[in-house]
Inverse folding.
């Protein structure tokens, strides 16, 4: 008779346990095999409560050997980049194709797929007055400079794109601009 | 006594409601009259429209009417500066500054030497239209009255608990009547029935003696137990449907759905890294530097009983970003005081399984939605897939290797296709089922 009661009790318990609250995570079996011992790359704090995600020390050169961008974020810097900075990439289809892909992800939402400043955020009036590329006097150096630092309401996109991808985007923007100017 | 108290409370309630209604109708009347009088000032609608269009196309990226942006707020600028000065500034502000105009240099310095674009292409009339628009402002939308202070919705009818209490009282009353009737009939001499309890006790005694029923019950009980035990044990560590409350009410539906921002705009690490990346706050600020408020009528429906979160609360959620990133929304400056946002992690593979986003996103070209579900429709994010090993393996068995732009796999693909005698090799046949691929 006692075993009966135990069976009934266990059924009731499991039935209650299966009513899961979706705001809470499930039970884990041996959580030490689930949870990483090192600091989690998506985690918040590491040793001494210092955030895990931090900017590299100023002037850091990454392992691909790309030298840090050293033109300052000033009006003079902008003029300098506009006049002197040149793309290190060859102008070819491969670079252009990836530039188009990256432009579609990071730029088109505001600047529009054609570069006419009529992206979806403009259409929905989240942003206003986004210029058409053909109305602005820009060079590959100044496009790269603005990608690095942003300008006015545009923020910096250097953290989302790699060195190579930025120059590929520049190449694609120049292509869009020449098409708009026709 | 209690009843009396209850009614008096109610009447006070009605009193306050009545006065509220009166007050509301009065305020809406005033707002209506005011808007009417604004309309009565003859606004040249055509010029206003033309000015607004020009303003939005040329000025609005840096200027707002009533709020500081990259440049100063422009409402009423004609009262602050002379028309000639404004025209000279708009056409070519650099030349005006070079001519030594003190006002021009002062405003340039005040706004961190942000170079305003010169607009030599605008005609005199166009500049005048823009200035006219900054003076008269936006057109008052029709039905100005409803734009006034939101009338609080009057909750109609009695509160729910009153209904419950009334219902319970009715049930109790019926029981009492039933008992009374029964007692009356027994007093009249009807035979005493054993009652519900007595009957079930007899039945239970019968069941206890029956061996066949015993065996049946044990088998049935064992099956049910096994079913629930197995079902629950297989859920251990599987967080499908997990939908925690996040520190900021971020709606993927608004961002990825309505505004069609690409997943990788924010999760930019997915293309090169093991992790898809939780965006750092500078990415939020790329847009939210400009967007401090959600649009009128934006709402988010929460999972908890379908609670609707409106504009007032959502604006506070945006303010949370500013607090964390240290952005002074009034002065438009970073204060330098930052603190991290502690997002609650949803998708979490155990540490003994290796997974790489870039291999799936960049090499295989798998859409994010294949594993993460319709994220662009989720107000609050939840885990769509079970993320179990069986689920991974199934996809690897079913999916063919995509050779487009994947020359790296061309040679091995040809060899394996010959070996297995198939045209297209699946991921599993390429080694995507090997233990060591993910567990090492």
């Amino acid at each position: 008779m006692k075993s009966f009661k135990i069976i009934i009790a266990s059924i009731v318990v499991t039935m209650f346990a299966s009513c899961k609250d979706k705001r809470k995570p499930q039970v884990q079996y041996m959580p030490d095999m689930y949870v990483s011992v090192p600091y989690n790359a998506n985690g918040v704090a590491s040793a001494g409560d210092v955030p895990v995600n931090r900017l590299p020390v100023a002037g850091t050169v990454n392992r691909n050997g790309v030298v840090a961008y050293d033109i300052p974020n000033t009006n003079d810097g902008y003029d300098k980049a506009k006049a002197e900075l040149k793309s290190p990439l060859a102008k070819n289809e491969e670079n252009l194709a990836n530039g188009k892909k990256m432009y579609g992800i990071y730029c088109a939402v505001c600047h529009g797929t054609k570069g006419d400043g009529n992206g979806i955020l403009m259409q929905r009036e989240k942003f206003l007055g986004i210029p058409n590329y053909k109305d602005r006097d820009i060079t590959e150096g100044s496009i790269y400079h603005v990608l690095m630092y942003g300008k006015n309401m545009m923020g910096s996109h250097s953290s989302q794109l790699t060195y190579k991808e930025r120059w590929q985007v520049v190449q694609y923007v120049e292509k869009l601009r020449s098409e708009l100017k026709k | 006594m209690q009843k009396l108290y209850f009614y008096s409370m109610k009447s006070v309630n009605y009193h306050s409601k009545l006065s509220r209604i009166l007050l509301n109708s009065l305020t809406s009347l005033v707002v209506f009259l005011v808007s009417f009088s604004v309309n009565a000032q003859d606004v040249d609608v055509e010029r206003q429209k033309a000015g607004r269009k020009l303003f939005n196309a040329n000025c609005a990226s840096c200027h707002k009417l009533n709020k500081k942006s990259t440049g100063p707020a422009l409402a009423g600028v004609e009262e602050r500066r002379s028309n000639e000065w404004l025209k000279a500034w708009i056409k070519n502000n650099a030349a005006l500054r070079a001519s030594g105009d003190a006002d021009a240099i002062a405003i340039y310095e005040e706004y961190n030497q942000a170079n305003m674009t010169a607009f030599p292409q605008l005609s005199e009339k166009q500049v005048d239209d823009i200035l006219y628009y900054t003076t008269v402002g936006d057109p008052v939308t029709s039905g100005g009255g409803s734009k006034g202070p939101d009338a609080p919705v009057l909750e109609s009818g009695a509160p729910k608990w009153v209904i419950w209490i009334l219902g319970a009282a009715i049930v109790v009353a019926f029981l009492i009547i039933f008992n009374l009737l029964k007692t009356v009939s027994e007093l009249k001499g009807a035979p005493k029935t054993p009652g519900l309890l007595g009957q079930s006790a007899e039945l239970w005694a019968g069941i206890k003696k029956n061996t066949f029923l015993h065996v049946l019950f044990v088998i049935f009980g064992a099956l049910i137990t096994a079913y629930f035990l197995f079902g629950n044990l297989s859920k251990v560590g599987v967080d499908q449907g997990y939908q925690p409350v996040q520190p900021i009410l971020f709606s993927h539906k608004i961002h990825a759905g309505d505004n069609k921002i690409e997943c990788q705009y924010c999760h930019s690490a997915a293309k090169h890294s093991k992790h898809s990346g939780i965006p750092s706050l500078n990415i939020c600020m790329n847009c939210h530097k400009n967007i401090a408020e959600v649009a009128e009528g934006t709402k988010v429906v929460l999972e908890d009983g379908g609670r609707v979160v409106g504009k007032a609360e959502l604006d506070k959620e945006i303010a949370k970003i500013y607090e964390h990133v240290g952005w002074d929304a009034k002065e438009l400056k970073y204060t330098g005081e930052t603190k991290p946002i502690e997002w609650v992690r949803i998708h979490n593979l155990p540490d003994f399984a290796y997974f790489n986003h870039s291999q799936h996103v960049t090499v295989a070209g798998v859409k994010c939605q294949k594993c993460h579900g319709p994220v662009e429709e989720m107000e609050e994010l939840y885990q769509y897939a079970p993320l179990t090993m069986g689920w991974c393996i199934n996809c690897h068995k079913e999916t063919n290797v995509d050779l487009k732009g994947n020359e790296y796999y061309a040679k091995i693909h040809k060899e394996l296709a010959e070996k297995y005698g198939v045209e297209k090799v699946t991921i599993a046949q390429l080694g995507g089922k090997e233990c060591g691929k993910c567990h090492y």
Summary: The CA atoms of residues 4 and 10 of chain A lie 10 Å apart. The longest helix of chain A spans residues 163-181. The mean pLDDT of chain A is 84.
